[in-house]
């Protein structure tokens, strides 16, 4: 069992962080995020160039209460809708998509607390309300199929021990709790929430990806780390494609891509209007009047706006599925979210590429750092392959075959 009768909440964490603010309404959430994102945008280029981690910016989000917006109402939280969560990630990612991606795992794994005992749920939701965040350390840089782990996990008195090296640890460098996935003796998935301050935990900022440079998506090392039973949850109850973790995960990734696309589209417009000169064959005095430029700008904008509408529709479907509780509503929400994810990814890739084709060689100068949009889009859209989303959509609409319970649609 993940939890024994003798298990008890861990001792109160010693912390110097300022207690988090309680956001009372979803409108207040969006106003707060808009205000913070405006400040984050000012340093986005410098952080990208220097690979400087946004510790201050993430701390500000925590203090503002943004990490706590989906804590259920029965545990003192706002219980924010999927629509609001998507908008939060779009706004943050438009300003700086690395900052947008860092909380992604936090919001995906927070619903797992609801699958524990009442004592577990109360304690961990309370920690999030106080300002704690959740990171990630469940992936590994190996050639094994996803979901196969090389870590050494052992049952011991009062809990478990783990040793191993994890990668793609987005959020771990900023978090108080670092989850990973393991299996019990019945091969059921469990989620283990490691105290980031526990003995044997090391976080290495060795992420060298060309994009999303400041997500700290590098290595987490566990060296015989003890995890008490109280920190272990039955992830097998929460992890299939019809549960909140999976539905929300895909939606958030789509929102990150849309934020990248929107900022790239805005930068494209500004550069065309303020920086470019007309080509020799252009019959008009301004580059922005060239018919080919006008048409191409219309095409990229159409892709971005279409993606935005699909994202909103998917978020509404997820909110409906959560309220409905049925398998069919969850299935339709998953299909809608796959549509949104594909559209948002393609919009980000297209506009960030066309940004240069529609402006010219001068736009590639380092002083503008416009290539960050393409680097970020190309890197983030690789999170899980779009080709499989298209396969699952085709197989469902053509052959009536639903995606499997662990498929990432």
TrEMBL record:
GO cellular component, one term: cytoplasm
Sequence similarity: Belongs to the HpaH/HsaA monooxygenase family.
Stored InterPro entries: Acyl-CoA_dehydrogenase (IPR050741), Acyl-CoA_DH_C (IPR013107), Acyl-CoA_Oxase/DH_mid-dom (IPR006091), Acyl-CoA_Oxase/DH_mid-dom_sf (IPR046373), AcylCo_DH-like_C (IPR036250), AcylCoA_DH/ox_N (IPR013786), AcylCoA_DH/ox_N_sf (IPR037069), AcylCoA_DH/oxidase_NM_dom_sf (IPR009100)
Region described as Disordered: 1-21
Keyword Cell membrane: no
Residues annotated as domain Acyl-CoA dehydrogenase C-terminal: 251-384
Occurrences of domain Acyl-CoA oxidase/dehydrogenase middle (ranges): 154-225
Superkingdom as given in the UniProt entry: Bacteria
Protein name in UniProt: SfnB family sulfur acquisition oxidoreductase
Ranges of compositional bias, category Low complexity: 8-20
GO MF, one example: acyl-CoA dehydrogenase activity
Acyl-CoA dehydrogenase/oxidase N-terminal domain sequence ranges: 25-131
Keywords for this protein: Flavoprotein, Oxidoreductase
GO annotation, biological process: fatty acid beta-oxidation using acyl-CoA dehydrogenase
């Amino acid at each position: 069992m993940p939890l024994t009768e003798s298990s008890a909440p861990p001792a109160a964490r010693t912390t110097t962080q300022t207690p988090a603010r309680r956001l009372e309404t979803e409108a207040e959430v969006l106003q707060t995020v808009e205000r913070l994102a405006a400040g984050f945008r000012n340093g986005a280029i410098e952080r990208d160039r220097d690979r400087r981690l946004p510790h201050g910016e993430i701390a500000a989000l925590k203090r503002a209460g943004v990490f706590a917006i989906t804590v259920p109402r029965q545990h003192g939280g706002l219980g924010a809708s999927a629509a609001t969560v998507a908008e939060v990630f779009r706004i943050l990612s438009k300003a700086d998509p690395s900052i947008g991606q860092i909380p992604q795992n936090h919001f995906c794994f927070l619903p797992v607390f609801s699958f524990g005992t009442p004592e577990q749920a109360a304690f961990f939701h309370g920690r999030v309300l106080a300002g704690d965040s959740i990171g990630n350390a469940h992936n590994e840089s190996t050639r094994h199929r996803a979901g196969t782990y090389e870590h050494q996990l052992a049952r011991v008195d009062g809990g478990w021990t783990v040793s191993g090296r994890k990668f793609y640890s987005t959020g771990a460098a900023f978090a108080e709790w670092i989850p990973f996935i393991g299996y019990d003796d019945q091969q059921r998935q469990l989620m283990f929430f490691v105290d980031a301050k526990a003995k044997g935990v090391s976080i290495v900022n060795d992420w060298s990806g060309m994009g999303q440079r400041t997500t700290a998506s590098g290595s987490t090392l566990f060296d015989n780390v003890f995890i008490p039973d109280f920190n272990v949850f039955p992830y097998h109850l929460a992890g299939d494609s019809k549960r909140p973790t999976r539905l929300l995960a895909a939606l958030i990734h789509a929102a990150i891509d849309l934020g990248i696309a929107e900022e790239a589209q805005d930068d494209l417009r500004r550069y065309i209007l303020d920086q470019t000169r007309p080509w020799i064959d252009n019959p008009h005095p301004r580059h922005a009047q060239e018919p080919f430029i006008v048409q191409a700008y219309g095409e990229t904008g159409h892709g971005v706006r279409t993606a935005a509408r699909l994202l909103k529709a998917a978020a509404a479907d997820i909110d409906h599925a959560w309220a409905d509780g049925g398998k069919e509503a969850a299935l339709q929400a998953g299909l809608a979210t796959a549509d949104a994810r594909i559209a948002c990814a393609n919009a980000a890739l297209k506009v960030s590429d066309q940004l240069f084709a529609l402006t010219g060689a001068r736009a590639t100068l380092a002083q503008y750092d416009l290539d960050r949009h393409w680097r970020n889009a190309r890197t983030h859209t690789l999170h899980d392959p779009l080709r499989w989303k298209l396969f699952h959509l085709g197989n469902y609409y053509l052959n009536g075959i639903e995606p499997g319970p662990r498929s990432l649609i």
